[in-house]
Design goal:
The structure holds 2 protein chains of 2 kinds. Chain A is globular, with a radius of gyration of 22 Å. Chain A has one domain. In chain A, strand 1 (about 65) and strand 2 form a beta hairpin. Chain A contains 19 helices and 2 strands. A two-stranded antiparallel sheet of chain A has the order 1-2. Chain A has helices at about 15-30, 40-60, 75-100, 105-125, 130-145, 155-185, 190-200, 205-225, 230-240, 240-265, 270-295, 300-320, 330-370, 380-385, 385-400, 405-420, 425-450, 460-480, 485-495, and strands spanning about 65, 70-75. Chain B is mostly helical. Chain B has helices spanning about 1-25, 25-45, 50-75, 80-90, 90-110, 130-140, 145-165. In chain B, helix 1 runs antiparallel to helix 2 and helix 2 packs antiparallel against helix 3. Classes of the chains: A mainly alpha, B mainly alpha. The interface of A and B includes residues 20, 111 and 189 of A.
């Protein structure tokens, strides 16, 4: 372990600063570029994301703490930052044609998307409640704007309003929980909270339980866990489809990184309490998501319920945490918890790549057919064979079939939960996986086995094709060769310390 | 002694203004009584040696927020007293709920485990300059620097978003 620094080291903020500057440049250039050249801003944004990624990789490898303990750059933070950057780059590339067709405010769209990503990068490194909350709000407010961005369309406006109102309620719950935590411990720095809870013996205080539940509710909204999932179907359906992809991938992963930081660090002394809570939440979330998806006829709504189901699987990782105070933890418990974290990281990455591929295909269909209804996917394999194959591979990965990456991510996750001894939850998850296969197969059935109403082939779209090809190749290659990335996740998880 | 007298005076004015705010017939009068309450609260902050909070209370609440209130009230036809009368008919329900809340607060303070340590009154004297200086140092040199700067990015997003969503043609 290298020495831990605690100064105001601006180098630790390099990826976030770079991305914020690029977002500001996008706003500025938007003023001078003619309307037909505005897609250049998206490519500029992608360059900014790549630069931020390079800076993040440059910071990686060691654990550094700065800004009086409020900021941490460790391998887990770098892992999540790269996940957010990859997701944002794919979403930007998929957005170009979609946004050009639907709004005059292209520059603002790209800038707000980049600001949302900046907020997510900060969530990955926040080690203190106020920083964490502001990073969360930066992301959330950007996403409220993006969800309602097509203000001329009724569904998009409805999505924006619903997301804003419900998001504000969840933020209030979260703030209340944070305020109670601060009141009980007198600090907002996560490891200090754990220390104060242990020192003052308030583990059983009813007030701390209330705080814990309120914080879990606030974060549960971000990851769309039941019962905080009610916004998902309407917002996913109404938001611009690239934004839906971003919500289902990056926004969800950002919810998991703050869950990981707050619960495994600040509330480490209460592990048995919240592990039980998350076990129930995980089981209910996956079941409600998968059952809800069965009846959907709109593909975006269906993917919304699917994302609730997938969040349920990911929440299992929190149910599998074993108790133990971080300093005095015995090595077997530490190894089990570390395996659980690495399984969670790998699951989130695999889910992100898979969902990005699926959504790239959905965006393309939406651009060319002007519809997201499942009925309009009939006979798509004849009209767009490559696209259909890509969508097929993505959906099979969501089902969890080999040789796609979704297979390995589920195996690792279920195995680590099984190892931790929460066997009933694994059984529920396996039943849910079988249930989920049926609605993913409905899309495949429509594409390959139903006759097409017309035979006209779908025109291509270069930047979106690039995003689609890259994500599908990643899904297949990682499915055939998962170990390098899994090793990276495992070493990041092994370095997770308060 | 003088502290207690001052507190009693300011608190009495605040309570009278609060009652006047609720029973005022015109919304504009209610808003103006609210300004009085906010001023009184600022004075109470001063007696607690929280000068910065007192200044912020006057600038933000008695200033900016009240101007916004008055703008909205004057824009939305202030003569709509019919609606105010409707609200007043719910007075009994409101009084019962307020009574329950009051008993609840009293019960928690009397028997609850939530009550904190009673503070000394008047509070220990803090030198005039330390309060604002301590907040400034906290904001700019310690762990709050990062959240403080983050707020500025948040405001940019809010401005861009509000402009896109609210403006008809840019």
């Amino acid at each position: 372990m290298p020495a831990i620094t605690t100064d105001l080291n601006i180098a630790l903020l390099a990826p976030e600063l770079a991305l914020a500057v690029v977002a500001l440049v996008v706003i500025g250039l938007d003023l001078v570029l003619p309307a037909e050249r505005k897609s250049l801003l998206a490519y500029l944004g992608v360059l900014g994301l790549i630069a931020a990624g390079a800076l993040a990789v440059g910071l990686g490898g060691s654990t550094q703490v700065g800004y009086a303990g409020t900021w941490i750059v460790d391998p887990v933070a770098i892992f999540f930052k790269l996940l957010f950057l990859i997701a944002a780059a794919f979403v930007l590339l998929s957005s170009i044609d979609y946004i050009r067709r639907r709004t005059d405010y292209q520059g603002e769209y790209y800038a707000v998307l980049l600001f949302a990503t900046t907020g997510m990068l900060m969530m990955a490194s926040a080690r203190e409640l106020i920083t964490l909350y502001l990073a969360l709000e930066l992301t959330s407010i950007s996403l409220y704007v993006l969800a309602g961005f097509l203000k001329g369309e009724k569904t998009s406006a409805e999505a924006g309003i619903k997301y804003l109102v419900l998001g504000a309620v969840s933020s209030a719950a979260l703030l209340y929980g944070m305020a109670l935590t601060f009141g009980l411990t007198g600090t907002t720095v996560l490891p200090d909270i754990a220390r104060q809870i242990a020192a003052n013996r308030v583990e059983t205080s009813p007030l701390l339980m209330v705080a814990l539940v309120l914080v879990a509710a606030g974060f549960g909204f971000k990851v769309a866990a039941v019962p905080f999932h009610l916004w998902v179907p309407d917002v996913y359906q109404g938001a611009p489809t690239p934004v839906t992809a971003f919500l289902s991938v990056a926004s969800k992963a950002s919810g998991f990184v703050i869950l990981l930081r707050v619960f495994t660090v600040a509330f480490a002394g209460l592990t048995p309490v919240w592990a039980g809570l998350f076990a129930v939440l995980a089981a209910v979330t996956m079941t409600v998501g998968n059952v809800g998806a069965l009846r959907q006829t709109n593909v975006k709504r269906l993917m919304g319920y699917s994302s609730i189901g997938q969040a349920g699987y990911a929440l299992m990782a929190f149910a599998a945490f074993l108790p133990g105070q971080s300093p005095a933890v015995n090595s077997a418990t530490a190894a089990t918890n570390s395996a659980t974290v690495s399984a969670l990281l790998f699951f989130l990455l695999a889910y992100a790549l898979t969902n990005l591929a699926v959504f790239a295909a959905i965006i393309h269909v939406s651009n060319r057919l002007g519809s997201d209804e499942l009925a309009d996917y009939a006979g798509l394999s004849g009209r767009a064979p490559v696209l259909s194959l890509a969508l097929l591979l993505g959906l099979l990965s969501l089902v969890g079939l080999p040789p796609m990456v979704g297979f390995w991510s589920k195996i690792y996750l279920f195995y680590s939960v099984f190892n931790a001894g929460v066997i009933w939850l694994v059984v529920v998850a396996l039943l849910n996986s079988a249930l989920a296969a049926s609605y993913y197969l409905r899309i495949i059935h429509a594409m390959y086995l139903r006759p097409a109403p017309v035979d006209k082939p779908l025109a291509a779209d270069a930047p979106l094709g690039l995003a689609l090809a890259a994500s599908v190749i990643a899904v297949v290659v990682l499915g055939l060769l998962p170990s390098p990335v899994f090793q990276a996740a495992a070493s990041a998880a092994a370095n997770l310390r308060p | 002694m003088i502290d207690t007298l001052f507190f009693a005076l300011v608190a009495a004015v605040a309570v009278v203004a609060a009652v006047a705010m609720v029973v005022a017939r015109r919304a504009v009068h209610s808003a103006l009584f609210l300004v009085v309450i906010l001023f009184c609260v600022a004075l109470l902050y001063l007696t607690l040696s929280a000068e910065f909070l007192a200044a912020v209370q006057i600038i933000v609440y008695a200033g900016a927020v009240m101007v916004l209130f008055l703008f909205v009230i004057t824009l939305l036809n202030p003569a709509a007293e019919q609606q105010l009368a409707d609200v007043r008919s719910h007075g009994i329900v409101a009084a019962v709920l307020a009574g329950v809340l009051l008993i609840e607060v009293a019960a928690v303070l009397r028997w609850g485990t939530l009550a904190g340590q009673p503070a000394s009154f008047p509070p220990p004297a803090v030198p005039w300059s330390d309060n604002v200086q301590a907040i400034g140092e906290g904001l700019f040199t310690t762990g709050f620097l990062l959240p403080f700067e983050l707020t500025s990015v948040l405001l940019i997003v809010a401005i861009v978003g509000a402009t896109v969503l609210a403006k008809r043609r840019l």
